[in-house]
Structures are given as C-alpha cells and as structure tokens.
Design brief:
4-stranded antiparallel β-sheet, Rossmann fold, CBS domain Like, alpha/beta
Amino acid sequence: MSARLEAEHLYKVFGRRPKEAAERLRDGADREELRADGTTAAVIDASFAVAPGQIFVVMGLSGSGKSTLLRMLNGLLEPTAGHVRFDGQDLTALGAAELREVRARKISMVFQHFALFPHRSVLENAAYGLAVQGVPRAEREERAAEALRLCGLAGWERSWPDELSGGMQQRVGLARALATDADLLLMDESFSALDPLIRRDMQDQLLQLQRTLKKTIVFITHDLNEAMRLGDRIAVMRDGRIVQDGTAEDILLRPADDYVASFTKDVDRSRVLTAAAVMDTEPRGDEADCGCATATPDTPFGELCALGARVPHPVAVLDADGAVVGVVPPRRLVGALGDGPGAPEPCDSPREATDGKVTARA
C-alpha cells in the first residue's frame, strides 16, 4: 500500500546558521555541540511513512521534538532540510498561499487546548474551517451539524463554549476538523489536558470515528498507554530523533534500546498484546495438537489467557480461512507478561505471520 504521508530526512534547527548546523548533524555532530554554539536542533533526520487510514502516533518526553515535527507536516514550520510529501505532492516546495490552501482543505489540526472562539456558538466554531474555505452558510452549518452529531454533540449546536465541559469542548475541536472533510488530521496532544476518564472517553470516540471515517491521522502524545491504545504504528522520539518506529507489539516486545524499554516497563501488556504477538508460528511436537481451543490473530491477550486456562494444551490460532497460523503454549502466555523464559523472541514476527493484520488496541 502506497503512503499517504511521507517525511523524508526532516531537520529543524533554531538559531544561527541553521542549514550549516543541519550539515554538521549529518556529519555526526550531536545536539550538545550545537547548543554550545547557540543553536538548538529540535528535529534530526526524521523519516517515516503513514498509510491511508492509519493512525500514526509520535510519542516522547517533553522536548523530544514531537510537536515541532508535527508542525512541519502542514507547513506551520518550515523544515531546515528534508521533504514532506502528501499524496505525492511535496509540501516543502509550496509557497505561502499554496500552503494555506492545503491547510484549509486537505489537512486539519486538533489542538491541545481546544482553541475555540468564546464569542461563537458551538455550531459556528465547528463550521469555522468551512467559513475560511468560503463554503455558503447553509451548507457549512449542515456539514458542521453532522460533524457535531458524529462527535456526540447533537443538540448542543446553539450553546456557547463556556457552557460545555472540557471533554465536550475538545469534541467541538474534533468536529471542526472533521467538518472540513480533510484527508489528514494532525492531533497535537489533543487529549492531554483532560481528566483521565474523559481522556479515555475521547480515545474511544476517536477509535469509533476512525472505524467509520478511516482518516489518516498523526497523533502526538507523551503517554505510552495512549499511544499503544490508539496507534496502528508508533514512532518514539528522543532528543529530536526517531529511535524506533513500529507496531505496539514491536515497541513492547522488541524495544530498540534501553530508552524505549524504560517507557514500556510499566505498561499493562495484557491490554496491548494480541494472539498474533505471542503465538509460536513454528509448532513442534505436541504443540501442534491443539484440540478444539482456538483463537484468531487479533484475539486480545486477556481473552487468550482465559481460554488457555480452560484447556491443558496449547491454543490454536486460526486465520479467516480456518487455517492454523500459530499456537500459543502456556509458556508463551507466562513469558509475554515479562521478560522471562518463554517470552516471544525477535524472530517471531506477528506481521509476517498474519500478513500485517495485527491488532494492538486495548
């Protein structure tokens, strides 16, 4: 599947002689060397591709460069070096007027702090992007009302932002982005200002909308649990660089380094893993005799444990055609919860075993 969005060797350097600094980074200089010269390297050699309909999550600690990276994707920040391509069009080659047109019609952004106009009604806020496009009032109000309905805000159209809870205000921001029918949504820590329960509700809302709308989404977060719940793929950033890019299972079971491993040590693996992530794709001896206990590659780990507890033999994992694609012996269930014996090894690739159809969401 061809990529919808591509970032190619992106650099963003703030300070004196940024292009020269980017060249120094290419030649092996590090962030601290540049900082000593009064230059800050916010993003260093970032490359990734996002497929159509995919949620691509970028996560990292504060100062890792993730928000700067996001703002280069729609031209709010000009890259010091590198390219951003959307549907094959090089956005970094566009002029200011062309970029504004792209942002108005093709790429929408959902901000962390709602960014609603207090003097506009909920409906007017949701319709704002369409007003910028010059859409006639009747049409934009109809489209905005539909977006509000999708976001669970039907009946609140004539209310004012200060009459809404924080979660409801964030839904208005999401509705505003959806109303423009943009192909790409950029979400900059959009749920991080919300209380935990409301935040989870918004995650549920986004996943529900995604099942229907199948938008291409880049989502920024510093919360690994949120990243693993939402992301089809996850990029982990550190000091301006992407240190790992993979599925939730990749990040959890095969961390690229100690830094990534430190993020994952407190994650509840049972809420992330699926049968595809822990199954043995090369059954041996009695492991191939799985009786009638079966699962699918996307069976959640919790259900898999319950199934495995009821039978004395390994659980068979069947694909959509009923063919056995792997088995899950008890040692795999135990090993997957930690780093002890029986944990899946790097050679056990769930993507290879299931043709890429791996589900990682809780």
